[in-house]
Write a structure and sequence with these properties.
Elements (H helix, E strand, L loop, with lengths): L1 E6 L2 E7 L3 H7 L4 E8 L3 E5 L12 E4 L3 E5 L4 E5 L3 E5 L1 E7 L11 E8 L9
Antiparallel strand pairs: 1-2, 1-10, 2-9, 3-4, 3-10, 4-7, 5-8, 6-7, 6-9
Length: 123
């Protein structure tokens, strides 16, 4: 599944991994979250519902560009720096261009929606 993230006038794209958690995340769209900087590594936002982890690992490490959910808090995390393994950190997908995520300002609204196939150059 392709994801479109709109931040101000900038559009970023991402690919969701097809897990149960990522399908449930996509089921929340369209969704606007306030993303805030956390620990100088990631932008986080509070999700309106908990996501299933039925087919997910119990934890994960994060790479730059990873889109994840942190189960203990139930929040979305988009990493702009790598982070070591953490229990409860579940991958949802990945930014297509990890360097495109704006770091400033420290907090901003982001709109998440499924990308239409036509807008991605598919028929």
């Amino acid at each position: 599944m392709k994801l479109k993230i709109t931040i101000n006038d900038n559009v970023l794209t991402a690919t969701l991994n097809g897990s149960q958690a990522s399908r449930e995340f996509a089921g929340l769209f369209p969704l606007t979250l306030q993303l805030s900087d956390y620990a100088g590594e990631e932008k986080i936002g509070d999700l309106p519902a908990r996501l299933s982890t039925a087919d997910s690992p119990v934890g994960s490490a994060a790479s730059k560009g990873d889109i994840m959910v942190f189960l203990p808090w139930g929040n979305l995390a988009i990493f702009y720096q790598a982070h070591g393994y953490v229990d409860g950190l579940i991958p949802l997908g990945r930014l297509d261009e990890p360097d495109a995520l704006p770091l400033q300002p420290s907090s901003y609204p982001a709109r998440f929606e499924l990308a239409a196939a036509a807008s991605l150059g598919s028929d």
